[in-house]
Amino acid sequence: MTTLSKRTTRAASEVAKTKAATNLPSTRKRKSLENEEEEEEENNTSMNNDDDEPDSDIDEEDESKFEKEFTVKKKQKKSPAKILQPQKSITTPTKPTPKVTSKPTKPTTPSPSQQKQTSSQSSQTNSKRQSSSSSQLPTPQKKKDTKIKYNLKPINIERLATYDEHMGGTLSNEKIIKRLKKLDEYLQDKKRGDTEGLEIVLNVLIDPKFADNKIFEVRLMTSCCLSEIFRIYAPTLPFDMVVLKVVFKLFTEQVLQGDRVDKKLFPQYFQMLERLAVIKVFALLALVDSTMLTPFFKDCLSRVHGDKEHQPMDIMFSTLLNTILESLEEVPTSLWNELLETLIEREKGSVPTAKAIFTHDLIETNSRFLQVHFELFLQDLLEPEIIGGQQQDSSLNNNVVSKQLKKKKNEILFEMFNILPEFIYPALQNLEFDLEDVNSAIRKGAALVLSRCYSTESASDELIAQRPTLYTTFLNRFHDVDLKVRTIMMEFSQHFTTTSEMEMERVLKSVRDRFRDSEPDIRIKAIQIFQSHIIRNPEIMNPDLMFEYLERVRDKDSKVRKDAEISLSTVWRSIREKHGPIDDWSKTLIDCYSSIPNTLLHCLGLYDDDKYRIEIAFDSILLPQHSDIKNRSTVFLEIYKYLDEANKQLFKKYLEEKKSLRQEFLALIQFLKNPKVNTTPTSKKTQQPQQQQQLQQPENDIEVYITHVDNLLPKFIGESSKKLVRQLITPQNKKILDLLVLISDINTTFQEQYNIKISIISKAQNESSFSEFIKYMVNKLSYSIVAKENIKYLLRRLRSDLGLDNFDKNSPIDLLEEFNEKTYEKEVKDGVPETLEVLLMLSQVYPNIFDDHGDQLVGFLTCSKSIVYPVLQILSNSSKTMKLPKKTLKSTLDMLLRLSQVPQPTLARLAFKTFIKFATPALTSINSTTGKVDNNRLVITLKDLTNNLFDQLEEKSKNLLSILEVIGCLAKGYSLVLSEHLDTLDILLIKRIMTGPCTLDFNQKVQLNKSEHHLTSYSKDVLIKIAGIKCMSNYLLGLREITKKSHEMVNMLFEFYNSLDKNKTYNDLEKSHLKIHIAIGLLRVFQRSPYEKEITPEQFILICNSTSITTKQRGDPLIRRLIEKLAKVMILNRLPMKYMAAFGMAAQQPYSVLALVRKHTTSIIKTRRMVISRLAASLSMAKNLTEFYPESSMPYFLYVVSHREDFERDAPDYIESACYLNFFIDLLVEEADNYSIIHTIFTKLKRSTDALDKKSKNHNIAAELGLQILTHQYQQKKWKPQKHPIIIVLPEKFYIIHDEQDEMSIDDEVASIKLPSLLPKRFKLPPLPAITDQNNNNNNNNNNNNNNNNSTNNDDESDKDENNKKNDNNNNDEKAIVVVPPKSKITKPPAKKVSKKAAAKQKSPKKKTNKKKKQSSSEEEESNSEEEDESEDEEVEDEGDN
């Protein structure tokens, strides 16, 4: 017999027994009793509702029995579900809360302490029923009686036998309600199993008169009575199945009426719900009528509110629904549809609704039981929809998964995964197929749900282990062609956490690959992901992963670069805050993160728009706050210690750019304040010939100052920078202008600078060009990163590094007394401290930063020579603003004179120049009457020094090299003090040094530091001759009267140059270096025009060919020094334009030298053309200006190329000659105008005759070769020769010009190309490197993003980007710092392709390695130091001339 039949039979037998034992009274007697009861009720006083009553007469053991009886046995239930029980009866609802708890727990049940109940079983009507209980409610409310008291006269028990007649007839609703209340009160007092006399009551309660009554209170009281009936009859059923359907219909209707219940009736309503929940009546719902199941769930869920006010009701609903779920043998599809639709319900912002949270908790409570049923439902959910309308409509078939759920299956899977990961395990295979689907929408959905699942910290490892192939397929979606899928994967990687280092590395490698993604947003996301993971755990990184992360600062997209710069700065700061100074880091941290500052500063040489962002990141993120000056200085030194030499130079160069802009800006401000002070602007570019100065005289001075500022500004979108400068100086912007002037002052504190920046930025909130302009200006004009406040701490740190005592300002020392030669000659163990390097760099950029610290600096002059030299450089740079007390100044001058006689010539020269800078203002005065300068004291001091030096020469002092250096400085700047020793000097230089082997000797301790290793690689004779060449060139330059003897000395230098090829005493390196030193000396001499005018073509060829000298010494710094010297005198306009030809002859030098040549030629050409553009259009002096154009150097260059010794041997292919011509043409030609000028020059040269050798046709061949190169290299430009304003005048010393060429038209010039060719028959132009088109490079860079958007396969594009990046890295290994004209972006020159023969002859290395960087760093340092000395030579020369 089934459970149903057993329960039905048992209930029927109980009802029959009750009817048989009941004696029914007469109707008349029943009516009289009813009237009496009603009268007594009216006169009865109100009952006390606060009497203690037990909330139930069911103990815990009985309750467990009820559960077993009323719960349907489940076949597939794996583990017992958690049962939620409601709080005990509360008469009034509580105040609202935000939402129901995620996991409702059983409310506190009454303690099983002795519950006492006294009840009268007699017919006494006024007996009181009392009970005591020690239980307490969870809420802090007063304990209240859970039984409902209606203040009515108790029911007459005798009437139960005729209760049907008692409730029959035409009773009013009020009477029906009163009698039902009495019955309810009576039933509450009955114990479980006490069913005596209830048979007729059962029939009455199920009467439609009560169950279907229109009055809600009647139905409610009927439900209350029925709930008590179920309690009393438990564990048997009081009704058969037919009746149970009616009863459950009433129950469900009452349960769902909670929102409509009147406040007065709510206690009864809640009592009913509680009773139904406790005895689990709704466990029979599916058994009684399964069709009611889904609608009941739907109605209950719709009434969930989730706030505190409705919390008791929500808990009751939860308990009822849990009871139903526990009783189910199978969960119908329609119920799953309802549950899951509610589970994924969302409000705005994807916030789960209260119903969704309730459903989540409901499923989670029964998760283990529902797992098996969900697996069956999942099969239908994952089944694809049938195309063609064969699938049944889910609205008509409750057993079919709804279409809405199928569309949202991924959301369902994720929600079910959050409840219990095992829910979705059967779906993993389908998800793996979806990840590889052709449809991107399907891949996106699968990737989205899996990304959320794998990002769940508690279950990610378990899910990975469940199906490893799925995880591998999922990670492959990082390379998906669809942007949305890749974006989902990036979101996943940001939140992914795992305990497996291997899995984390797999994810990070996938993210690393996205650094090459075609979409900037993906690359930005990859940067953010790396940052978040590194900050959480820095140890997860390795150099391989970090490489691409660091490379993003070189990205083609400015937004990506900006995010990379900020991200790297944040990462570095985070690691330092956690792990302390870099020296304390582990090897892993050093390998991965110590290069971040290097990477950031390297960007200063790449993109103009990044410089100011790098400065902000460095200043505000890498370094501590400005208020913490000491710690800020410490961190800066720490960073500087780990910088590469190249990046140190870039940092210095950037500060110099800021300095230049600041100087030009302040010059503009000074002119605005007092426009009559100067008629021409001050400039660091020194004197030009008087005629050209007149041509350049500005028509409007203010425009010149504005132009000088404009030349240092980048481009701004939408407006020209010059117009923005004009707008800045208008009266409307006076406040902003005043703030910019204030921030340009070095004495402005960091706090004041910060306030100024905030003030200006607040006024530049819009996106106009002017707002961007003033933001740029306020950052570029400020003293950021390190400034005046840091000097105090840097000097203190330097004294600590050198082991010196603290400085005492009140007790100055005598430097000569403190000077010790042993200490001076002693080498510093760890090299020059980084602190001193920083101080030296700052002195070169901000000379006025040391004005209050001179007395501390001079104290370092008594240290080792390695320390003294940079200190002298600092003193020399800061001499104009440095303030020294009188005693300290006198001691310093004496010490400088002493240092000018040390064995090291480099240091002696610098000491003398520093002495001149300090002594000139100290030992000179202005006569108040005559206004003339009185420098007698200075002259006397210099004469004493000169006499001392020549006395040492007579005594054959070992200090020869230093003596020659100082004498050369004296001769160049103060030649009058040598008047008594000129004959001695002539004999020394001409006869004893430059003629034949030198027999003089000198001290071997001439090397200042390891960078001067070349001083020990030469023989003594070569060293002395080099010193003699330098001294002689300075002597010739400083002569006030140039005589015939002076020209003879110049010719002697040329003769010595030519004789070196035949000399067998010197090795090849010594010969090459002697030639270069002679060339440098002659360039110095030729700054005096009388010398230069007398130069012969042969001598000019020798000087130009000096730049083509190659040595076995890789990256020879002397070649770089020659090019730097040539560039300097050309920029200062101290040599005519024809010497540009020397740059063209460097075409066979290594790539680093070529980059240096390009840098300087670009700067020279830009300066010349800028000056030409300012000339008045009315000037008719084109012929006089011809030599001023850069193109005027082409005839000289062609002459040098054609007169090379190897020119004829270069035939018939002319590979080397073509290489020289192509290189120089590339330097000069930028646009169609340059093209036309060069074309005209070559045409005229083809028809000219060599002035030295009239029979030679070499220059004609070279001109024809040049025309072919010009035509071939620029054929894509489609330029044609055009008219130009320049009159081409060939130099008469070099060429003989035919008269008929003067009036040659453009057509004649073009026709002249068709003259009989002098090149060999079948001549083919050799392979040549591609021309460098800067404008096109910029355009290509700007169009990269557009091209990338057209790509369909991002993986292919990523590979291309990676290959290009590798090429760029190879090309950049030895790339010099290139100066690019303003308004142009810095781009990398394309790699040049040459033939194997040409490449072999050029001897340019194929690849530049980091080893070469390290090898050449010391050599470059030497070159830089020597060039600084040369610049100081020029300053001394200017002072001497003045």
Amino- and carboxy-terminal Cα gap: 129 Å
Q: Would you report the number of β strands?
A: 6
Judging from the principal axes of the Cα atoms, what is the shape? elongated
For the biggest sheet, the summary is: 2 strands, antiparallel
What report would you give on this structure?
Helix 18 runs parallel beside helix 20 (440-454). Mean pLDDT is 75; it is low at 1-145, 387-396, 677-699, 1176-1183, 1301-1313, 1334-1429 and 1431-1442. Strand 3 (925-926) and strand 4 form a beta hairpin. By secondary structure, this protein is mainly α.
In short:
The protein is mainly α.
What's the arrangement of secondary structure elements?
Elements: H1 3-20, H2 27-43, H3 60-70, E1 116-118, E2 130-132, H4 163-166, H5 173-189, H6 199-205, H7 208-211, H8 216-233, H9 241-255, H10 266-278, H11 285-288, H12 293-302, H13 311-327, H14 333-343, H15 354-365, H16 367-382, H17 403-407, H18 409-419, H19 428-435, H20 440-454, H21 460-466, H22 468-476, H23 483-495, H24 501-513, H25 520-536, H26 543-551, H27 558-579, H28 587-593, H29 596-602, H30 608-622, H31 629-641, H32 645-673, H33 690-695, H34 701-710, H35 721-728, H36 734-743, H37 750-762, H38 769-781, H39 788-801, H40 815-818, H41 821-825, H42 834-845, H43 854-857, H44 865-877, H45 886-899, H46 905-923, E3 925-926, E4 933-934, H47 936-954, H48 960-973, H49 982-994, H50 1014-1017, H51 1020-1038, H52 1044-1059, H53 1068-1085, H54 1089-1093, H55 1097-1105, H56 1117-1131, H57 1141-1144, H58 1151-1174, H59 1182-1185, H60 1194-1202, H61 1215-1228, H62 1232-1246, E5 1249-1250, H63 1258-1273, E6 1295-1296, H64 1306-1312, H65 1334-1349, H66 1354-1371, H67 1396-1402, H68 1410-1441
Antiparallel strand pairs: 1-2, 3-4, 5-6
Helix pairs in contact: 5-8, 8-9, 8-10, 10-13, 12-14, 14-15, 18-20, 19-20, 19-22, 20-23, 23-25, 24-26, 25-27, 27-30, 29-32, 31-39, 32-34, 32-42, 34-35, 35-38, 36-37, 36-38, 37-38, 39-42, 42-44, 44-46, 45-46, 46-48, 46-68, 47-48, 48-51, 51-52, 51-53, 52-53, 53-56, 56-58, 56-68, 60-61, 60-63, 61-63, ...
